[in-house]
Design goal:
two-stranded antiparallel ribbon, eight-stranded parallel beta barrel, TIM Barrel, 2 domains, 602 residues, disordered N terminus, alpha/beta
């Protein structure tokens, strides 16, 4: 037998160990998820939500399918049909009188529970997690009737200051996870309470004591969800009073909450709602807790997918207006915060937000925004353009179509900014509400959201400011600049070729929709500005007003014709102001009412 020297023995052993290590590494990298390869851990989230319109039929979307989400790289699905998971429990463990056996109310709850279980099962079968969107406070009407003196304050509001209210919520969370043990976690919203889809429940905003209310609720939820049950708690900062958009307020609350691996704060990328000219959210990248960033793909204030509106580039790299009329110090984009320790994911709202229409049958533009945000979120080392190119690859956009499609999308962001707001002039946050959902507001006083006294419309406030500072004509010129951009977009749309014929057609139809709508807006603003100036001076330029009204009427007719001749065309905007009064949410005031004042001007 040959005797090995120490050096020979050590060499053979090292070679053997290296081979074993290589095999282990091959096995390891074959098992771990793509997210781990990108250097992100299991606590990094790429989430999606279809935000169904409260009180309406559920949205038909491929994004409802967990298999589709899994294939797109999402790690979780946020269920938001406004039939909350805590509305799908009987409260038997607390008081059997609340939903008595054999009652229609109990039958409704049990049917809701079946849907919850089916949704959880579908998501897990696809290999992703599921989190239920939950408004707090929402409780059974019967429960509140039975315990009113113990849960309501002197104003009749359900209050977290009451020990019984805390006890009920602890029992409620226990029953939720006993009824749905496979549920991965909860998404909590405060501030707004939608009861449209829960006929046997009532509720209200729990934040009645400012920061103290948030701290009370967070400690309760952290204890019951994260600690006791090892489930995820995604606490949305969207609320009222500063939690969402005031860094000091946010830190005053969150610094009093102990971090936990299962606790994440969800923050919209905008300071306020999803409007252009709103700053990048100043709470992002600060504090000691994990954050996921919410991004709306179907922009509720900018067409809802009825026309091209590519916002993903601005969200990732920073919007144009941050360098012009809406400058801000500090972070301006996802790229700016992607290496911060707080950044733990993105959450796309692929569909929905707001109320009513426009309604789309083709979600091409929604999908583009959601695709770029989510795929960038899965590998933040990529540039936005690299992800965009990947979208074009999948859509079969080749050759000269690629340059045309890229330019079309980038122009759409410029056109929407100029057509709905401004890239140059001062814009106060309240003014952007002149349009939302499928409504076009005017300059006439309109009913406020309280439905009581008429109030100055957002547009009249803007016109007053711009007129005072001799900028009103510049605001109107910008609307016509938007029209010029939309004409370029229509021309580019005729060059773009896609693998899917329906999508190719929709790119063209929706581009024409955008042009006609913004021609209506430009003429509408022009008429109202001419009328506004005439009202101030006592002398109206009748010929200019009459010419602009003829164009306004002509564009409305072409806009309506587009819908009549194209079944895939989205539903149309309406020349009325928004009024928070379901089911129409429509005031008699608005663009038409304002313009009609000047049809027979002396």
């Amino acid at each position: 037998m040959k005797v090995l020297s120490n050096n020979q023995f050590n060499t053979i052993m090292m070679q053997g160990m290296a081979a074993v290590r290589a095999q282990v590494l091959v096995f390891f990298f074959s098992c771990i998820s793509p997210l781990m390869i990108y250097g992100q851990d299991n606590n990094f989230h790429v989430l999606d939500m279809v935000h169904n319109n409260p009180g309406e039929a559920l949205t038909n979307s491929r994004y409802n399918d967990p298999e589709f989400l899994s294939n797109e790289g999402y790690t979780g699905q946020v269920m938001n049909d406004f039939t909350f998971v805590h509305a799908a429990i009987t409260f038997d463990s607390f008081d059997k009188r609340i939903f008595p056996r054999g009652s229609k109310e109990r039958d409704w709850v049990l049917e809701a529970a079946k849907r919850v279980k089916a949704n959880i099962k579908r998501a897990h079968r696809a290999g992703i997690k599921v989190y239920y969107f939950t408004d707090i406070i929402v409780l059974p009407r019967k429960l509140v009737e039975l315990y009113k003196d113990e849960v309501c304050d002197e104003n009749g509001k359900i209050s977290l200051e009451k020990p019984k209210t805390i006890e009920i919520h602890r029992q409620m969370i226990q029953e939720v996870f006993e009824s749905f043990p496979d549920l991965d976690g909860l998404v909590i919203r405060t501030g707004e309470t939608y009861l449209n889809n829960v006929p046997y429940h009532t509720g209200n905003n729990p934040i009645i004591n400012g920061e103290k209310s948030h701290i009370t609720l967070l400690n309760l939820l952290r204890d019951e969800v994260c600690v006791k049950r090892n489930k995820m708690l995604i606490y949305r900062t969207w609320s009222f009073g500063g939690m969402h958009d005031d860094r000091n307020y946010y830190l005053d609350v969150t610094n009093k909450i102990a971090p936990h691996k299962n606790l994440v704060f969800a923050v919209k990328h905008t300071k306020g709602d999803y409007h252009r000219t709103h700053e990048f959210n100043p709470t992002l990248g600060f504090g000691k807790h994990a954050q996921v960033v919410e991004v709306q793909a179907q922009r509720e204030y900018e067409g809802k997918g009825s026309f091209p509106n590519y916002i993903a580039e601005g969200v990732i790299n920073g919007f144009e207006e941050y360098s012009t009329n809406s400058p801000q110090a500090g972070y301006q984009s996802l790229n700016d915060i992607k290496n911060s320790p707080q950044f733990k994911g993105v959450w796309t709202w692929s569909r929905g937000g707001g109320w009513v229409g426009p309604y789309v049958s083709n979600e091409f533009w929604c999908h583009l925004n959601a695709y770029v945000i989510s795929h960038w979120g899965n590998d933040t080392k990529q540039t936005e353009e690299q992800v965009f190119n990947g979208f074009m690859d999948k859509a079969g956009i080749e050759g000269e179509s690629r340059k045309a499609f890229r330019e079309l999308c980038q122009l759409s962001a410029k056109a929407v900014l100029r057509g709905h707001s401004s890239a140059k002039l001062p814009v106060e946050n309240g003014w952007v509400w002149w349009t939302r959902d499928h409504f076009l507001g005017g300059t006439d006083p309109q009913a406020s959201e309280s439905r009581d006294q008429p109030d100055a419309s957002p547009l009249s406030k803007a016109f007053n400011y711009w007129h005072k500072h001799r900028q009103l004509q510049a605001a109107i010129d910008e609307k016509y600049e938007a029209v010029s951009l939309w004409k370029e977009i229509v021309s580019l749309s005729n060059i773009v070729k896609l693998r899917n014929a329906a999508d190719e057609r929709y790119v063209r139809v929706s581009s024409l929709y955008g042009l006609l709508l913004h021609q209506i807006i430009a003429e509408g603003w022009n008429i109202m500005a001419l009328g506004f100036v005439g009202d101030m001076s006592g002398k109206h330029e009748r010929e200019k007003i009459a010419l602009s009204i003829r164009r306004y009427d002509e564009f409305w007719e072409k806009y309506q014709q587009l819908k009549r001749e194209n079944p895939d065309c989205a539903t149309l905007y309406k020349p009325y102001a928004f009024l928070y009064q379901p089911p129409l949410y429509q005031s008699e005031k608005g663009m038409d009412a304002s313009i009609n004042r000047y049809r027979n001007t002396d």
